[in-house]
Amino acid sequence: MTEEQLPPEEVILGHFAIYRFTDRFWTLPPAQRRERAGAWLSGMKASADVAHLYLVQGLETGADVLLWSAARVPDAAAVGAFFRRRAATENAHRDVLEPGHVLWGVTRPSEYSRAAKSAQEIDPFAPGRRSYLVMYPFTKTAGWYLLGRETRQGMMNEHIRIGKQYRDITQLLLYSFGLQDQEFVVVYETDDLSLFSKLVYDLRATEARRYTKADTPLHTGVLVTADEWLGSLG
Amino acid sequence: MTEEQLPPEEVILGHFAIYRFTDRFWTLPPAQRRERAGAWLSGMKASADVAHLYLVQGLETGADVLLWSAARVPDAAAVGAFFRRRAATENAHRDVLEPGHVLWGVTRPSEYSRAAKSAQEIDPFAPGRRSYLVMYPFTKTAGWYLLGRETRQGMMNEHIRIGKQYRDITQLLLYSFGLQDQEFVVVYETDDLSLFSKLVYDLRATEARRYTKADTPLHTGVLVTADEWLGSLG
Amino acid sequence: MTEEQLPPEEVILGHFAIYRFTDRFWTLPPAQRRERAGAWLSGMKASADVAHLYLVQGLETGADVLLWSAARVPDAAAVGAFFRRRAATENAHRDVLEPGHVLWGVTRPSEYSRAAKSAQEIDPFAPGRRSYLVMYPFTKTAGWYLLGRETRQGMMNEHIRIGKQYRDITQLLLYSFGLQDQEFVVVYETDDLSLFSKLVYDLRATEARRYTKADTPLHTGVLVTADEWLGSLG
Amino acid sequence: MTEEQLPPEEVILGHFAIYRFTDRFWTLPPAQRRERAGAWLSGMKASADVAHLYLVQGLETGADVLLWSAARVPDAAAVGAFFRRRAATENAHRDVLEPGHVLWGVTRPSEYSRAAKSAQEIDPFAPGRRSYLVMYPFTKTAGWYLLGRETRQGMMNEHIRIGKQYRDITQLLLYSFGLQDQEFVVVYETDDLSLFSKLVYDLRATEARRYTKADTPLHTGVLVTADEWLGSLG
Amino acid sequence: MTEEQLPPEEVILGHFAIYRFTDRFWTLPPAQRRERAGAWLSGMKASADVAHLYLVQGLETGADVLLWSAARVPDAAAVGAFFRRRAATENAHRDVLEPGHVLWGVTRPSEYSRAAKSAQEIDPFAPGRRSYLVMYPFTKTAGWYLLGRETRQGMMNEHIRIGKQYRDITQLLLYSFGLQDQEFVVVYETDDLSLFSKLVYDLRATEARRYTKADTPLHTGVLVTADEWLGSLG
Q1: What are the chain D neighbours of E83 within 8 Å (beta carbons)?
Q2: Which of D181, D182, D211, D219 would you mutate first to test chain C, the one with the most C CBs within 10 A?
Q3: pTM over 0.90
Q4: Pick from A82, A227, B45, E225: most CB atoms within 10 A?
Q5: What is the reported pLDDT for C160?
Q6: Ordered per-residue pLDDT tens for chain D, 234 residues
Q7: ∠ at Cα C98 (C96, C99), nearest 5°?
Q8: Are E212 and A142 inside 8 Å of each other by CB?
Q9: Closest by alpha carbon to A190, among A163, A216, A230?
Q10: Are the C-beta atoms of residues D87 and C55 closer than 8 Å to each other?
Q11: Are the beta carbons of C88 and B224 separated by less than 8 Å?
Q12: Residue E212 in contact with residue E138, Cβ under 8 Å?
C-alpha cells in the first residue's frame, strides 16, 4: 500500500437514485403533475451539495428519472446525516413517486493509478455536465483479490491505457465494499454514446475482463434540465 | 480493424418497447379503449422516424404489444433528442399503459462480414414488413473476446454460411455495449416462423454457440395494422 | 438429416396459458363469477381448434387454471391468425383475469424416433383426455448439439426405451427454438401421477440427463369439466 | 430395485401451502378478520384428512401462515379429487387471502433405508404434533443419479447415522419427481429449533452434501392452535 | 469439538426485519403518519427484550426502516413464544406497513475462537449503540465443510487477525442453519462506514473468501432515535 504517501483527499459520497412515478401521479391533471414533480426536485437538490437529473425513461425498463446526488463527507457522521436529510425530503412526495434502485459509494485514492488527479476524472461539483451519464455496480471475482499485486497492476495498466485513448470520456470510481452488494459504482460521462459504446467494446478484449463477476444492471441517462423534464410530464 | 476502409454508413438507432395495458384501461368502455390506444399509437409513431406495431399477447408472458421504432442518428445529440421526444409522448398515456421491457442499440459496420450491405439485412425504413419479428438481447462470454481474430472469424463464417441458406429470413444487428446490459440486440424478420425455428435449430450445432452467454428473453411478435389491433381491444 | 424421407405431417401448434383470476373477480358475487368465467372459457374454446381446461390451483404457486389450446397450421400465416384471434377473445375478459405464463411450440417429425406415429404419442384432437397433464419448457446444454449424431442417438435410445415401459403415459414434443426462450415444450398425459413420478425418477439415471440445461417451471394440471370448475368458483 | 419385496404401504399426499392475508383483510375490523380467518381454517381442515396450522410471520419474508394438509391416496383418482376439493374451499376466501408458495409430494418406500417404519418417521395423522416444523424442497445434482448404487448407499448410510443421533427430531420424505420443480419435499418436526440447527450443521460435513443441487426456500413454522392464531389477528 | 469444555452461555435470538410503509400510509395526513408509526414502534419494542431502529431508506432499494430485535432464549419454547408475540403486535399495523425481508438466527459458542467473550463482540443489550449497522446473510460453499479442521482453523485465524486490526468495529455471528436459507447472519456495528468499508476490502484478499457462497443482500442502516425518525415522516 502506498496510499499513506499520497496527499489527503476529500472524501465524496456519490448517490444514484432511480425513480418511477406512480399511478396516482399519472392520474393527476398535468399542471399538478408538474407542480408535484418540481417540488420534489427542488427539495432533493437542496438535501445534497449538488444533484443532477437524468432521463432514463425508455432507456431502461420500469423507470422514469435518475437523480445523481453528491455530498462532501468531512467526518464519519456526515454519511448518516446525508441519509437522514434526504429521507425526510423524499417522504413529502411518497404518495406520487416510488423510490427504486439506489446505488452509492464513497471516493478513495486509487490503488492502481498514482497520478495526481487526472483530467479524465469526473468532478461532481463542476458547473457543467456532459450530455450522457452511464453508471453500473461492479464486482470482481474472488480470484482477482488473490492474484499478486504486480499481476493486477499489469492488467490495470492495459485497462487504463485504453481508457486514455478516449480523452473526452470522463470517469468516477466509488467504493461500495461493505456498504451495498456491489464492490464499486463505476460512473462515466460522455457527449457521444456511440463513442462510449466503442470504448466498452474495446475493453472486452482485456485480460482484466476475465475477473469481472458482475457489471449489471447498467443505467444510461440523458441529461435534462428541470424545465425540459417538467414540460414533458403532460 | 478494417472499419476505417469501409464507406461511412448512416447510424440508426433501433428501439423496442414492450407494453402492457393496465387494469384502468381494461375497465374503460371498449370505445374509449380504442380511442386511447389509437392516440398512443399515433403519438409514438410521430415521435420516431418510423415505428412498427407487433402483437405479443399470448406469445410471451405478461405483455400486449411490441413497438419497434427506428431513428436516424446524424450526430451525437440525436440519441438524447430521440429519448426526450418519446418520453414526452408516452407520458400523455401513462394512466392506461405500463411501459415494460425496453431494448435498444445502434447500428455499426460488422467486424466479420465485409460485404456491401447484404440482401438479407433489414432496412427498418423499407415500406413493407414481413409477418413476424423475432428479437432478443445477446451477450457473448468473456472468453470469446480473448480468442484470436482469425479463430473468431472462422466461427463467424460457419454461422454466416448457415444464415445464407435461409434467404427469406432477414437480419439486423444492433450494438448495445455500454448502453444496456446486453452486448447486442439481434433482430430477425420472417414470413414463416417454422422456417425460422429450423434456422435457430441449425445454428445450435455451430462452434460459436459455445460462446453465447445469454440470448434471452426472446420476443416474438405478429405484425398487426393499427386497425386490426384497435379492433381487437374489445 | 433423414427428415426429407418421411411422409409429410400436419404441423400443429400447441399453446398453454396459465391464468390467475384477479382481485376484482373474487369480489364479484358468486353467480357473476361463474358467468364471467363461463363466458371466458366458451370464447377461448371457440378461438382454437380445440381447448382443454386443467385445474392448477394448489398444484403450483400463484395460478388458477391452465388452458391447453391446439390449432392446425396449414400455412405460414396460420400462426399469426391464431394469436390475433385468441388476443381479441381474451381481451373481452381482461378486467377479471390476468394472463400468466404462456408456453407454445409446433410439432415436427422427431429426429431420433423414425417409427410411424407411436401409440404413446398424444393426439390433441382425440375425443377423451387422461386425468392429468404435466408440461414443462425444456432446454438442452450447448454441448449436446456439438456431440456426434450417433452419440446422441444412443442416448436417446436409452431414454426412449424407458418411456416405452410406461405404456399408459403418452407424450407430445413441441419445438420452440427461436419462438420462445425454451427449446421444447414437453407434454405428458397420464391417469396415474404416482406412476408418472416413477417414470421421471427412472429417467434421472440416464446419460442424456447430463445434457439437460433447464426443465422448469413444470406445470401439473388436473383435468376438469367446465361445470365442475364453474361450480367451484364460489 | 428391491421395492417389490417390501410390504405394500399406504400412499399419503402431503401438501404445504403458504398464505398471506391481503390488504383488504387488514382493513377489516378485528372481529371480522377473526371470523373470516376462522371460516377459512375450518373449511380447509374439512377438505383434507388432517391439516395443521403453523405461524410463519416473522420467520420468513412475505408470509403469514403455513397449512400442512395430508390426504390418503387409495387410488390414482384421489390426487385429483383432493385438489378439486381444496380449490373449491379456498375460493370462498380469495377476496381476503392470497395463496402463496405451495409444495407437495407423495410418500414412497425409501430406496436406502429398508427398516420397518422407523420411530423417527413422521405420522401426519398422529394426534399430537411437535412445536416446530421445518420443510424445504430438495433436488440432487444430475451426477448423483449416475453414481453406482453402492456408492450412493454408502453416502446415505453416513447421512442416516447422523440423523439417528438426534432421536427427538422426526422426519418425512415426500417424492415430487415430475409433480413439481423439486425432486423431494423434506419435512422435519422438533420441539427444539437449536437442536435441529445443530443437526443441519452436522450434516454439512457429509459427502452426500456435495450432491445437493438445491434445498431452498426453507420454511420454518411455529405450531399454533386455531384460537391462539385467531386471537393474534387484531 | 471443544465446545463441551466452554462455560455455558446464554442463547440469544437476533431478529432483523425490514419494513416498507404502504401507499395507504403515505396518503395519511402527516400527524396521523407519525401517530401510526409511533404506535408500531412502541409495540414492537415491547414485544422483544430490546429493539433498535435504523434508517435504510436511500441506503437500499425498496425499504424504509430496519428493526433489530433481540430476545433471550432460556428454553426451547422461547423461540415460538417470541414469534407469536411479535406477530400479534405487528398485525395491529398491517394496514399501513408491509413487512419485508426478515433475517434471524441464534448465538452459539464459536468453533474457531476459543477466547473468553471478546471486546469486539456485540452485546445487543448494551445501553448505547454505534451509529451504523451492517448485516448480511452468509453461506459457505459445500467444499468448506469437507476441508480438514486444521485447514479451516488456519484460514479463520487469518480472517480473525485482520478483524482485530479494526478495534472499533464490533461483530456478532448468528447461526441460521436449518432455520432460514442462509447459514449465518453476520452483524457489524461501527461509527465510521469508510473504515468498515476498508475492513471488508482487506478481507477480500484472504483465502477463506474462496469459500464464500453468498453474502448478499447486505443491509446498511443509520441509527435513528424514535423522535428523529417520526419527525422525518412528513
Answers
A1: 55, 57-59, 222
A2: D181
A3: yes
A4: A82
A5: 95
A6: 344 454 557 899 999 999 999 999 999 999 999 999 999 999 999 999 999 999 999 999 999 999 999 999 999 999 999 999 999 999 999 999 999 999 999 999 777 776 656 889 999 999 899 999 999 999 999 999 999 999 999 999 999 999 999 999 999 999 999 999 999 999 999 999 999 999 999 999 999 999 999 999 999 999 999 999 999 998
A7: 135
A8: yes
A9: A163
A10: yes
A11: no
A12: yes
Distance from CA of D131 to the nearest CA of E (A): 8
Q: How would DSSP label each residue in D76-99?
A: THHHHHHHHHHHHHHHTTTTTEEE
Question: Closest chain E residue to D223 measured between Cα atoms?
Answer: E80
Q: Which of E132, E136, E166, E188 is an active site residue? A: E136
DSSP state of C99: E
Spacing of C-alpha C124 from chain mean position: 10
d(CA A51, CA A69): 4
Interface test mutation site (partner B, options C104, C180, C182, max chain B beta carbons within 10 A): C180
- Rounded to whole angstroms, the Cα distance separating D18 from D98 reads 9
> What is the Cα–Cα distance from A59 to B142, expressed in whole angstroms?
25
Which residue is catalytic, options A54, A136, A166, A188?
A: A136
Contact E216 A100 (CB under 8 A): no
- Distance, CA of C93 to CA of C20 (rounded, Å): 12
> CA-CA distance, D119 to D133, in Å (whole number)?
17
Q: Taking CB atoms and an 8 Å limit, are B26 and C94 in contact across chains?
A: yes
Q: Please report residues of B whose CB lies closer than 8 A to that of A134.
A: 178-179
Catalytic residues of C: 136
* Helices assigned H by DSSP within chain C: 23-26, 30-46, 77-91, 149-164, 193-203, 226-231
Q: Provide the angle, in degrees to the nearest 10, between the axes of the packed helices A193-203 and A149-164.
A: 150
pLDDT, residue E114, reads 64
Residue among C64, C135, C78 nearest C103 (CA): C135
CA-based radius of gyration for chain B: 19
Walking along chain E (234 residues) 10 residues at a time, the average pLDDT comes out as 54 97 96 98 98 98 97 97 98 94 92 73 95 98 96 96 97 98 98 97 96 97 98 94
Task: Let me know: does E20 contact A99? Beta carbons within 8 Å.
Answer: no
Residues on chain B touching A216 (C-beta within 8 angstroms)? 181
Nearest to B101 among A23, A26, A61 (CB): A61
Calculate helix-pair angle for D193-203, D149-164, nearest 10 degrees: 150
Q: What is the pLDDT of residue D116?
A: 59
Do chain A and C touch: 3 or more Cβ pairs under 8 angstroms? no
Taking the C-alpha atoms of residue A130 and residue A123, their distance in angstroms, rounded to an integer, is 11
CB contact at 8 A, B234 and B30: yes
Which residue's entry shows cell 437542496?
A46
DSSP strand pairing (E12-21 vs E132-140): unpaired
Active site includes E112?
A: no
Residue for grid cell 406415429:
C117
CA distances from residue D69 to D41, D82, D180, D217, D224 in whole angstroms, order as listed: 11, 10, 17, 19, 15
Cα distance between residue C183 and residue C178, in whole Å? 8
Residues of chain B with pLDDT > 70, as a percent, come to 95
The alpha carbon dihedral of E75, E76, E79, E80 has a sign of: negative
Q: How far apart are CA B133 and CA B207, in angstroms?
A: 26
CB contact under 8 A, C132 and D79: yes
3-state SS class at C2: coil
A222 forms beta bridges with A55, A132
Q: C88–B231: do the CB atoms touch at under 8 Å?
A: yes
Considering only CB atoms, which chain A residues are within 8 Å of B95? Answer: 23, 26-27
Residue among B59, B196, B231 whose CB faces C178 most closely: B196
